[in-house]
Design goal:
Blueprint: E1 9-10, E2 16-17, H1 22-28, E3 36-42, E4 45-50
Antiparallel strand pairs: 1-2, 3-4
Length: 54
């Protein structure tokens, strides 16, 4: 597993952004403007996945 360090960027008063490396986007076949689900797994972990896949 490769590690990538990224910074949390404040976009507006209610949202933040994290830049995901291109290699990860290509690995999962994600495209620009694709819907993704972000799940809080607790203890500082999150899961990002395609909204259609269970």
């Amino acid at each position: 597993m490769e590690k990538h360090e990224r910074r949390l960027i404040k976009v507006s008063t209610h949202s933040y952004s994290v830049v995901i490396p291109k290699s990860i986007i290509e690995k999962y076949g994600w495209r620009e403007k694709q819907k993704l689900v972000i799940t809080d797994k607790g203890r500082g972990k999150i899961e990002i996945r395609d909204w259609r896949k269970k």
